[in-house]
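To whoever picks this up:

The parser on our side crashed when reading a file containing two proteins. I've narrowed it down to the boundary between the first structure block and the second sequence. Both blocks are reproduced below exactly, byte for byte. First block:
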Amino acid sequence: MICIPKALRLNHIIPTHSTKQLATSKAADMPPIKPTLSREAKNATRGKKGKSFTTKNSMLDILDQVNQAEEARVNKKLERQHTIKKLVDEREVRTAEKKKKKTSRL
């Protein structure tokens, strides 16, 4: 590209690039433009949400779901602790047996 001073650079007299080539390369690289809704149209389609009042039944259902999730989490932790304790106990038994074998050899 030729370096032309800004004062002398006039696109209609001395173009710095081919406008046809630029338009076709941009069109080839870019996906088609999606139509966008104006702000007013977006608000009209969304509508006013308003207040939603809960019933006792729906609150109890939500509470049950939360309790079930919490119980599942606690049970999983207890199972994990139980398996770890089993492994530690087995390891201690093995090490005790190894010590007995060593002492019996001597």
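<<boundary where parser fails>>
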Amino acid sequence: LKRLADVKEQQDSSDAEVLKKLAMALGKDLKWLQNGGGEDVAKWKRVKWDAKKERVVEIDWGQQELKGELLPIIGQLTSLQKLYLGSNSNLSGSIPSTIGNCTQLTGFSASSTSIS
């Protein structure tokens, strides 16, 4: 049986791993994402971390010259409340259906992108 602390640590790293994969798929490297914050997600570029829940609750990557498609793993960020990707003209593709797993999502922007 996994200890509760092990499960909690696995969940904490899950959001971080999702962010890393998303950033890399959108043409950014870990140095850009981590923004000098190392492994401390709370210090990462334009990411809001809820310390109480220990989950990512907001991503504001608008106007960041992102390119590519939003990956279905976005749906693993189940505490995500706001996702802003606007003004990244090289973003394309469809909104993954897995975004439906983000049941707390109340703010979303993909204006000035080719996301449909």
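After patching the parser it read the second block fine. Confidence is low (pLDDT under 50) at residues 1-12. The beta strands are 47-50, 55-60, 67-69, 82-84, 90-93, 107-109, 114-115.
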